[in-house]
């Protein structure tokens, strides 16, 4: 059978010095509520220097033993799966973007050039039509007389 023995810390067993009213800055009526503080530090300055030089990576590695192996394996599998999914998604996106951009250059640029050339032809035909209309407005009888004169010559010839 196991026997448990309570060992009291000397910090709590030492007698609290009784301050006089002259020594105390803030006096309270209830002395039991006053906290006893030990002015001697038990922490060495070497351990503080070690903590300051320790990197974040070293601290995370030290926490590895706190997490159970099953949880670590599950976390590792999740992170690995997520990174693989991200890599494959980025790889597929890059390849798809390459295919789309090269297709646009190979098919789109010649189509755009042909479309622009067709638009130029349509614009030239409109300009020629406008010039023909402007010439008819300036000399309205010339074309009509030429057309009538040609028609009269055909009528004046005897039929054979």
UniProtKB/TrEMBL annotation:
Q: Which Pfam families match?
A: Tom22
Swiss-Prot/TrEMBL GO biological process terms: intracellular protein transport
Q: What is its main location?
A: mitochondrion
Q: What is one GO cellular-component annotation here? A: mitochondrial outer membrane
Membrane topology, from the record: Single-pass membrane protein
Keyword Zinc-finger in annotation: no
Q: Which family does it belong to?
A: Belongs to the Tom22 family.
State the protein's name.
Answer: Mitochondrial import receptor subunit tom22
Organism name: Talaromyces proteolyticus
From which lineage does this chain's organism come? Eukaryota, Fungi, Dikarya, Ascomycota, Pezizomycotina
């Amino acid at each position: 059978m196991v026997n448990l023995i309570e060992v009291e810390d000397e910090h709590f067993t030492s007698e609290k010095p009784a301050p006089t009213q002259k020594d105390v800055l803030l006096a309270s009526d209830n002395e039991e509520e006053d906290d006893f503080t030990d002015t001697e530090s038990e922490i060495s300055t070497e351990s503080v220097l070690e903590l300051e030089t320790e990197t974040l990576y070293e601290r995370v590695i030290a926490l590895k033993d706190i997490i159970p192996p099953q949880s670590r394996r599950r976390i590792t599998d999740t992170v690995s799966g997520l990174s693989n999914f991200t890599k494959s998604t980025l790889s597929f996106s890059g390849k798809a973007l390459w295919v789309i951009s090269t297709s646009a250059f190979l098919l789109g640029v010649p189509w755009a050039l042909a479309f622009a050339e067709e638009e130029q032809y349509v614009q030239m035909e409109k300009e020629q039509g406008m010039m023909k209309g402007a010439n008819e407005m300036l000399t309205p009888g010339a074309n009509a007389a030429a057309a009538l004169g040609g028609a009269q010559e055909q009528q004046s010839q005897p039929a054979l």
